[in-house]
Design a protein that fits this description.
alpha/beta, binds adenosine-5'-diphosphate, six-stranded mixed beta sheet, binds magnesium ion, Rossmann fold
Length: 584
């Protein structure tokens, strides 16, 4: 069972001294509990209450024996405290490492992963599964030494007495019933594992529904979905309840069962001692030893529960941690530096799943885009325009064919190098929960204050930012001031100005705007596109005439290409789309 956790021991490396110290102290605490206390009782009780003829002890002897009582308890308490503290310390270090690795994994996973899996489940993994794994490690790492030490200490003491005192040996016979308690641990443990896993999944489902509901608060009201959502949530919560209670049933029945069986064992042992006429102080001192043995057994049962929970959590964590990362940097990347910005698609086909059965989204496209050209991608929605653009920063890998930037296959570049050459403004830009200034700075970390403000001016964002209560230091996003869609787009454009990348992707950057913002943004865009290779997916067609090249997308293929005037003449599809826009 412990082998299951072996791949995670490396998290303990930086704290191994503390960990080993904690474990050793655990052995001490365990021994001091069972063997220590029993021995102490014998040392005190025998001369105190069994001395022949009622002889009194010397004062010195009396005090020394009395001092044993706090001494044994003191050692036990201190060892126990240090053991718990040190092991908990190490456990928290493990949690930290696990969380960092998981978060790092999230950063590297292909984008497709986040659309495919439910983000509520990912959240559950990042939070509760990591915590469960830590809990298991902390409690089990301590228990796994303390409990056997306690148990062995107790048994050791009993054997010692049994050998030393004739008659007490019978006592041992009665103890043979205790190992029976191991049986229920095995049976219940197996069931528990399965149930714990199901309960985790039910829990992930709850988070998912909650997340979805919260992010769609507006739609829920608009479509009057409150009842439906409540029913959905209630059903999910109920499923969790059922699963959780099954876990509880198994988890909570284990300890009482073991305790009960141990009770029977003790009764039999006492009977044997009575038959053998053992001395009173021996029997009485064996009782704590027995109690501690039984308690250790009971808690080993609990530990089994804990290990099972931990294993279920790890299984789920590993689903993420072991997810392949298909987009990796090459071993010997080529260097790109500041690219000129020529883009070539050569026989590119693409399907989101990457397998033959998945729907082909782009079909054998070849396009040559000279550096500095403005390319308009046109077509009805769902025809593959965004997909085409997303292949340039290598958000996805082509299924076949290749994409080149400045003549280099982008798979031969470091992703960071490639992406430093691409700026993207999409329909709804994300602002982090931070100051406007820091949000702008994302465009080019290391830019000066003057650069940032200049970029904001270029994007017609400076005036509204300066008008905010704290100016550039205003917090935006969830906790801060809300900005309108148009203002947000202008912040995104300012970022693109700062980034100063040779390749610019505008994916319906202006489609969600009021006309005031749009006018400002169009002006900003005209400045921004100068000297760059631009892939422009325009919702409105007012900028089309500026394009050097229009690519008309239809069902994953480019059905017409050329300058606006030429395509307008040759492609009925384009003419239809264009004319429709002009009237609207
Ligand atoms: N992340 C994704 N996973 C799976 N399919 C997707 C994904 N994004 C888009 N698609 C599908 O790919 C096709 C092209 O989409 P897209 O490139 O977004 O079209 P456009 O930008 O022209 O509207 C559509 O059928 C769409 O459903
Ligand atoms: Mg799109």
């Amino acid at each position: 069972m412990l082998a299951r956790f072996r791949p995670y021991y490396h998290y303990l490396r930086p704290v191994r001294v503390r960990f080993i110290a904690g474990i050793c102290l655990g052995v001490l605490a365990g021994g001091a509990s069972s063997a220590g206390i029993s021995w102490m009782i014998k040392q005190v009780f025998q001369p105190f209450f069994e001395a022949a003829g009622g002889t009194r002890l010397e004062t010195y002897d009396l005090l020394a024996r009395l001092a044993l009582v706090p001494l044994v308890f003191g050692v036990r308490c201190i060892a126990q405290f240090l053991n718990s503290y040190l092991v908990a310390y190490c456990g928290t270090v493990v949690l930290e490492g696990l969380r960092k690795d998981l978060f790092g994994k999230f950063q590297r996973l292909p984008l497709g992963y986040f659309q495919k899996s439910k983000s509520g489940e990912l959240l559950a993994r990042a939070v509760s599964d990591a915590q469960q794994a830590q809990l298991t490690l902390t409690s089990s790492a301590s228990d796994i030494v303390v409990l056997p030490a306690t148990f062995l200490g107790g048994i050791g003491y009993i054997v010692y007495i049994a050998i030393k005192e004739p008659g007490a040996g019978m006592f041992l016979l009665g103890l043979t019933s205790i190992p029976l308690a191991v049986l229920p641990i095995k049976i219940i443990g197996k069931n528990l594992y399965r149930r714990a896993k199901q309960a985790f999944e039910a829990n992930g489902e709850i988070s998912e529904i909650l997340r979805e509901n919260l992010s769609a608060a507006r739609e829920v009201r608009a479509f009057a979905l409150e009842q439906r959502e409540q029913a959905r949530f209630a059903a999910s919560v109920r499923r969790f309840f059922a699963q959780q209670m099954k876990v509880n049933k198994y988890a909570f029945s284990l300890s009482p069962l073991i305790e009960f069986l141990t009770g029977i064992g003790i009764a039999i042992a006492l009977f044997m001692a009575y038959r053998a006429g053992s001395p009173w102080s021996s029997v009485i001192s064996m009782l704590p030893a027995l109690y501690f043995c039984a308690d250790a057994m009971r808690r080993m049962g609990k530990m089994q529960t804990e290990l099972t929970r931990g294993t279920a959590a790890l299984d789920r964590l590993e689903q993420v941690l072991h997810e392949p990362e298909p987009i990796a940097d090459p071993a010997e990347p080529k260097t790109l530096g500041h690219a000129r910005g020529a883009i070539e698609f050569r026989n590119v086909s693409f399907a989101y799943g990457g397998t033959a059965t998945d729907e082909i989204v782009l079909q054998n496209l070849s396009v040559d885009i000279p550096a500095g050209s403005i390319v308009a991608l046109v077509g009805k929605s769902g025809m593959g325009k965004s997909t085409f653009a997303n292949l340039v920063p290598r958000f996805y890998d082509v299924t076949s064919g290749a994409v080149f930037v400045d003549g280099i296959d982008i798979r031969e570049l470091r992703q960071a190098d490639l992406r430093a050459n691409v700026a993207i403004v999409s329909q709804d830009s994300f602002l982090f929960n931070d100051t406007i200034y820091n949000n702008l700075l994302l465009g080019r970390p290391g830019a000066t204050r003057a650069d940032v403000e200049q970029a904001a001016r270029d994007a017609y964002a400076h005036d509204f930012i300066a008008g905010l209560p704290q100016g550039y230091d205003t917090i935006v996003g969830e906790r801060g001031a809300s900005v309108s869609g148009g203002q947000r787009q202008r912040i995104a454009l300012a970022r693109a100005f700062l980034r100063n990348a040779p390749i610019l992707i505008l994916d319906e950057a202006t489609s969600a705007l009021d006309s005031d913002s749009e006018a400002a943004i169009q002006k900003a865009l005209q400045k921004l596109v100068v000297g760059r290779t631009v892939l422009m997916i325009a919702h409105r067609f007012s900028t089309l005439r500026d394009a050097n090249l229009v690519l008309v997308f239809d069902r994953g293929q480019i059905v017409a290409r050329g300058p606006h005037a030429e395509v307008y003449r040759s492609s009925p599809l384009y003419r239809g789309l264009y004319d429709q826009q002009q009237i609207a």
